[in-house]
Design brief:
Blueprint (H helix, E strand, L loop, with lengths): L3 E4 L3 H13 L3 E7 L6 H5 L2 E6 L10 H11 L3 E3 L9 H9 L3 E2 L4 H8 L1 H10 L15 H11 L3 E5 L8 E4 L2 H19 L4 E5 L7 E7 L5 E13 L2 E6 L7 H7 L1
Parallel strand pairs: 1-2, 1-4, 2-3, 4-5
Antiparallel strand pairs: 6-7, 6-8, 9-10, 10-11
Length: 256
């Protein structure tokens, strides 16, 4: 059990982490920007450190300042919450190198799951069914044509990095493939500074249902149920419904 942890976030998630830590008898260090000095999370924690100006880039995304705050206050671990640095493999690795525990996945796991093409190949190797598509990233338009011909149209070209529905283009036929391929690559480069793309068979009118799985360092794994995220606007989730009304109890048990 840790004696003291630093919470590298703000707002509601930071408050929840601080309260949970207090119930467990763990001291907390809050970090805050100059704009958040009077925020609730900064007052709830046992200690507080200002890590930079109001902009997130200069504060909550400032890895050096956050690590320094943890070391100066004697924190043993850093809890990133969600967003900001929670899925940043470089930050997780920096924590390890500085003798701090990153409360979350390992850097290798973050890298593997943060890249959609690599994540897909990883779960496929573990025997998980996946949507038919290209084997890894597409290095050329010719590769895209061959992969699309193998699985049949319509297909969806997807950026391997990032999310939020950006870098995704549909091609209903071979005539549409080149424009979809080039547009997806340009969008991915602009949004994520990574132009890698892959393609999959387009599933039309699908349900988007996610299953939440949580595992700890000791091999304990918990299934937290499903969330139906089908209500979306421009590929962005608007509402999540749990449990999903389209799942039967039999399928729910089989999935979980």
């Amino acid at each position: 059990m840790f004696k003291r942890i630093l919470v590298a976030n703000r707002g509601e998630i930071a408050v929840r982490i601080i309260r949970a830590a207090r119930e467990m008898g763990i001291e907390t260090v809050a970090v805050y920007s100059e704009a958040d000095q009077q925020s609730l999370h900064a007052h709830l924690a046992d200690y507080g450190v200002c890590i930079g100006p109001g902009s997130s880039k200069g504060s909550y995304l400032n890895m050096v300042n956050i690590i320094s705050a943890a070391l100066l206050t004697g924190a043993e671990a850093i809890h990133p919450g969600f967003g900001f640095l929670s899925e940043n493999a470089s930050f997780a690795r920096m924590c390890q190198e500085c003798g701090l525990v990153f409360i979350g996945p390992t850097p290798e796991q973050i890298e593997r799951m943060g890249d959609k093409a690599l994540a897909k190949s990883t779960v496929e190797a573990a025997g998980v069914p996946v949507v038919p598509g290209s084997k890894g990233l597409l290095c050329s338009l010719d590769e895209a044509r061959k992969a699309a011909a193998a699985i049949g149209y319509p297909i969806l070209i997807k950026a391997t990095a990032g999310g939020g529905g950006r870098g995704m283009r549909i091609a209903h036929s071979a005539a549409e493939l080149e424009q979809a391929f080039q547009t997806a690559k340009m969008e991915a480069k602009a949004a994520f500074n990574e132009e890698g793309v892959y393609l999959e068979k387009l599933i039309q009118n699908p349900r988007h249902i996610e299953f939440q799985i949580m595992a700890d360092h000791y091999g304990n794994i918990v299934h937290l149920g499903e969330r139906d995220c089908s209500l979306q606007r421009r590929n962005q989730k608007v509402l999540e419904e749990a449990p999903s009304y389209v799942l039967s109890d039999t399928l729910r048990r089989k999935m979980g």
